[in-house]
Structures are given as C-alpha cells and as structure tokens.
Specification:
Elements (H helix, E strand, L loop, with lengths): L1 H34 L2 H32 L6 H33 L4 H19 L6 H20 L2 H10 L1 E4 L2 E4 H30 L6 H26 L8 H13 L2 H16 L7 E6 L2 E10 L3 E5 L5 E5 H6 L2 E3 L7 E9 L5 H13 L11 E7 L4 E9 L7 H17 L22 H9 L1
Helix pairs in contact: 2-3, 2-4, 3-4, 4-5, 7-8, 8-10, 12-13
Length: 456
C-alpha cells in the first residue's frame, strides 16, 4: 500500500514537471517571436522614453500635493484622496503619452502591440487604485490592489486562462480529499473577504454599542469579542465548504487538537475562558482601579485593556503590568471602583497627652476639607481611637471618588495640611516616650574581698 502511494505521488510530480516545462517553452517562444525582434525595439524605446518623462512630471506633482496635504484643516478622507491622486499622476501621464505615441505609430504603420499592453496595465492600475480608496482598512486596501492588479496583468498578457488551468490541474490528494491550487487560492480569497466583512460588521456593532450608555463596558467588550470569534469560525467553515472539503475529515484533527490543548495549551485556554468569565460577571472592567497580589508583589493601577490572555494594568508610575486572566480568577482582587468609585481613606494621627483633643479633631477635619480631591459629601470625620503608650491616637477618615489618580498622594496632601495646622495651633505630635526609674546607690562591702587577698 505504501509503495502504491509513493508511485502515485511520483506520477503526480512528473505530470506537474511536464506542465511547467510546457508552459516555460510557450513563454520562451512568445518572447522570441514578439519581444526579441527589430520591430519591437522602437516600441520599447518609446515606452522607456515616455516613462522617463512621466517620472519627471510625477516628481513635480508629488511636491505640490505634499505641500497641500500638510494643511491641517484638511480632513483625513481628503488627505487620503490627495495621496491617491498623487500616486496615480505618473501612470496617468504615462498612459497619455503612450496614447499619443500609438496614434503616431498607427500613422506610419508601425507595430503597437507592446504599447497597447502597457496602456492596458496602466489603466487597470489606475482603476484599482481609485477603487481601493473606498476600502477603509489600509491593509485590506493593499491586499485588494495586489490581487486585482495581478489578475488584470495576467489577463492583459493573455495568460490568465492558462494560469487558471495550471492551478486547476495542480493539487494534492490526501485520502478522499483532493485539493487543487485553484481551490486553495479561492478559499484563501474567500476567507480574506469574509474576515474583512466580519471586521466591518464587528466595528459597526461596536460603534453602535458604544452609544448605549446603560450597557457596561465589560458587556460591550464581551459581545464584540464573541461576535469576532464566531465570524472568524464561520469564515473558515464557509471557505472550507466552498472549496469542497468535507468537514468530517477534521474529526481526527479535532481529537489531536483536544489532546494538544490538554497537554500544552492548558494555560492559554485557561486564560481565554477566564477572560470571558471576567467580562461576563463584570468583576473587572476596563477603567476599574484594582489591586491584586501577584508572585512579584502587589500591583495597583487602572485597567487599560483586556485581551483573551491578559489584563493590562497601568500603575501610577506609568508602567503597564500584564496580569494573566487566570491570576485574577484565582487570587483575591481589590476593586476600588467595582460598583462605586467613592472610596474612604483612613489616616492615623498621634497627639501629645497635654494637647487639646477637641481642637485636634476639628483641625484634622478642616485640613481634609481644604484638599481638592477630598469629597465634602460624605464629609470628613475624625475619631479618637485609643490611649497609646506615647500619644493619644486619633483617626481621620475622608472620601474620594477618583482612585485611578492615586490614593497615597491624596493622603500625603491631607497629612501636610494637618501638620501645618498643628504647628500653627501648638499641637504637638510626640516622640515615643519611656519612663526610666533610677534607684539609689548600692553600698558594696569590700572588707571581705580585702581579707581574702591578704590570706592568699
């Protein structure tokens, strides 16, 4: 059985090699009869001469449009149109010069086949470049331009049918599945078109969801992410069905994929499902201020981005910490803005025992009220907590509603206000105090020590 399969593969390789050789001979014969002739030399000279003139003209046009596009009052769409006009100025000029040359050659009865071919390619390039303006994505616009112009070039040369026939006859047979290069190319193009359409649809849905103020950001992100995943799977399934592949042949592959997930992709899959869990229960949302204990210490900051693998937390020092989603599921997380951003801060203060306690409490409340970020409702409050070893311990409590801007800095501002007010009103923040009792001098009996030394 293995020998028969090897023989079949060798026969297919020989057929492909013979086809390639046949096409190469046809191309060589065409070049010898059409290109390497005395009559074609005039055409080639005119083609390169008009190209040189078009390049010089394009340089002047490019400088003009470059200065025009720098104007800030122009919109993005108009700037893109200006760039497109600048890019097609050279082929437009070249095609006009070639059209004039064709008219002159026809008057003298000379051959014009090459010049017509070049004009066909230039017209195809101009049309495709203009159509690509209406594709919003720069990536997909470039992909469309290359694919469309390649097909137009092959058609202009007259070998498009030959290339399609070659792709249809060349393929690979794996068991009951026969995949040709033409079917594979159609599948890739279909997947690209469907993914592009899915991206447009996802963007439209995302913009629509952003207008719904009552919907949370986590739910919007979850809907968009699920829609993007479903559309990508549908694009691949539709493409496979379109090229004639029976999806049941992937049963073995799906089993192998399951084993691979169980052995090597556990963490990846765990993080992916953890991301959907976080978005579904809305325990962590973009914009939340969280504090989580990781293997490298606690992390505090604002959630800037949530992906299928990690959550990006922007700390107060400007660094972004990428925390795996499963860490947020398995470890305790302090969400400072889960349901409400209003947060209470506690600030312990110690005053001397001879200080006016009532005045100190009032000064602490006034100091907190003078800090801009401290809320007036709920209003700050100060309580007497305990009689300490060295001081009377009081505690100032105040509220803020912007924990994403930091909590240590606002506490520092309040402490500075308290310190100034204590200094102005003579309230002392004491040092630790200890009472040291020194007993009277102890009389030592040295007579026994003297007698012992004399005896020795």
């Amino acid at each position: 059985m293995e020998q028969e399969n090897q023989t079949i593969v060798e026969q297919e390789v020989e057929e492909v090699a013979s086809q390639v050789t046949e096409y190469a001979l046809l191309i060589y014969q065409w070049l010898r009869e059409s290109v390497f002739t005395f009559e074609s030399a005039y055409e080639l000279a005119v083609i390169f001469g008009t190209l040189f003139i078009a390049v010089l003209f394009r340089a002047r046009v490019a400088r003009f449009f470059q200065n025009l596009s720098k104007q800030r009052e122009l919109g993005v769409a108009l700037q893109r149109l200006i760039r497109t006009v600048s890019s097609i100025s050279m082929p437009v000029t070249w095609s006009i010069l070639l059209s004039l040359s064709i008219a002159a050659f026809e008057g003298y009865g000379l051959t014009i086949g090459f010049m017509r071919l070049v004009i066909s390619l230039l017209v195809a390039f101009i049309v495709i470049r203009i159509v690509s303006i209406f594709i919003p994505s720069a990536y997909w616009s470039k992909v469309f331009s290359w694919v469309a112009w390649t097909a137009a070039a092959l058609n202009a040369v007259g070998v498009l049918d030959m290339v399609i026939e070659f792709l249809q006859d060349t393929g690979l047979t794996v068991g009951p599945v026969n995949i040709t290069l033409w079917a594979l190319l159609k599948g890739i193009m279909l997947v690209a078109i469907l993914i592009w359409g899915g991206t447009l649809l996802t963007g439209l849905v995302e913009r629509r969801l952003q207008t719904m103020e009552r919907m949370s950001s986590a739910l919007r992100l979850l809907i968009v992410r699920i829609l993007r995943m479903v559309l990508a799977i549908l694009a691949v399934v539709i493409a496979l069905a379109a090229i004639g592949i029976d999806l049941t042949v992937f049963a073995v592959f799906s089993g192998a994929l399951g084993i691979g997930i169980g052995l090597g992709l556990q963490r990846t899959v765990a993080n992916m499902f953890a991301s959907y869990t976080l978005l579904a229960d809305q325990s962590v949302k973009p914009g939340d201020v969280i504090e989580v204990d990781t293997a490298y210490g606690p992390t505090y900051g604002q959630v800037k981005k949530m992906t299928t693998r990690y959550v990006s937390v922007l700390s107060r020092d400007g660094t972004e910490t990428l925390i795996p989603n499963e860490v947020l599921i398995a470890n305790p997380v302090t969400n400072w803005s889960h349901s409400d951003k209003v947060t209470r801060r506690r600030m312990p203060v110690g005053i001397a025992y001879d200080a006016d306690v009532d005045l100190a409490l009032q000064l602490c409340i006034e100091a907190a009220g003078e800090v801009e970020r401290v809320l007036s409702v709920p209003k700050p409050n100060c309580l007497m907590r305990e009689f300490g070893d060295s001081s009377i311990n009081i505690e100032l409590r105040f509220w803020i509603n912007d924990p994403e801007n930091g909590v240590a800095n606002v506490t520092s501002d309040v402490m500075r206000k308290v310190w100034r007010k204590f200094k102005e009103n003579g309230i002392e923040v004491p040092f630790p105090q200890r009472d040291l009792n020194v007993k009277g001098a102890v009389r030592l009996d040295t007579r026994r020590a003297d007698s012992a030394s004399d005896a020795s």
